[in-house]
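Researcher: Let's run the pair from yesterday's discussion. Sequence first, then tokens, for each.
Model: Starting with the first of the pair.
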Amino acid sequence: MAGPLRVEHDVEVARWVQQGLAGFGSVAANIPPIFDAYARILHPATHAVPTGETDAWGRPQLATHEITWVEAAELIGDRVGETAPYTAWLARFGEQQLFLPDGSRIDEPHSVDIPLPLLTALAELLLDEHGDAEVLAAVWEGSGLDASGSSYGFFWSDDEQLTPAQRAAREAEMQAEARAAQIASVDPEISSAMRQGHVLGLPREDQGRGHVLLRGRLAALTDPAWVEGAGLGWRGDFGRTPNLLWPAEPHAAPAWMVATDLDLDVTLVGGSGHLIGRVLAHPSFEADRVRPTDPLV
């Protein structure tokens, strides 16, 4: 691997994490209950606002920017959350997309992994609090890394005079090109590790949640440009970040851990009381304090 992270083929170095996780549904199902304190960082939502312009097909153009959950609540007003939500956003707001009277839209936060700006800010804080360290990172082997089940949608202009057969052929060609670009964006060593089964199941094995292990330095993650050579499926502004990150030493007793469940829209941090206090007070994070026994949603 040419980037800042390299594949760790010996997944046994992280087996203690798997063994330390609790049952499904609690904070401790994502991060071992071994730390003094914990925080939950809410991933930002997206506010899409009409620009007054349209594209070549007459569709309204939207300008997007990130907003906090507090800002979303101010725009949306009182909402009733879902009775059986599977994300924290749905528990709070009840819908994945919310349309406002002014024609704008609020989209639910990013899930699967921690957004790059949040990871960068968190890496800077961890570096300042504990210094540089060799870290282990676990990245889910699914979305963005495994192209086998990926499909891509394409928009067609009504002005294009294509027969059904021509359109099908064009779409097949574009699908092949998109898939080839995705495969090229993933480091061959990562793809090889997935094929060989050098992955760690989190929270347990055989649950469709195998994670590739990577090893690198915390300091490298403070520069957001690290993703450009990481081989984690980055093309433009989209790609993968670690689902689990912690110092490699001391083994099974790290000073901190960062966890992002692939189904959730929050990132959990475990560490000392002082570290968590800094996370809660940090201007880049919308965070609250949690306990290992608290529900994830």
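Model: Moving on to the second of the pair.
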Amino acid sequence: MKILFVCYANMCRSPMAEALYRVNSAKEGRTDDVRSAGTHAYDGAGATGEAVQAVKKYGIELRHRAEVLDEWHMKWADLVLVTDKERKDDVVGYFPWAWGRVKTIGEYLDRSDVEIKDPVYDGNYEGCAALIDDLTRKVAQKLNAEE
């Protein structure tokens, strides 16, 4: 399965989700292809230092360069998991033909009340990483259960 994680700038939430999903999916015996992109990213920008530090706790050395979400990403992905409802609205607005493959991570897990808030605004990168760690583990488990 090809999974794309999407946030706003592709510098915090979606790179953390990409990296944490890789670790968690491997623990669940999955070999999914995974990428991330941002609806308003600056191509080539690095992950924030705070995001890099937040995932070190999980044994991850985050080396990431932001990518702007484009048609290539959307055609590539089997499943597009976005961080929040605003990102979902953006993605579906840009690529209406892909609406059936676009869900917030919370929606995918039947928890539509769960959104991953941008830690840029509250500085809680560790809390954000912990939430993403939990959610990405559950995504891998759900995919295993569905297969």
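Researcher: Give me one sentence on the second I can quote.
Model: Residues 125-146 form the longest helix (22 residues).
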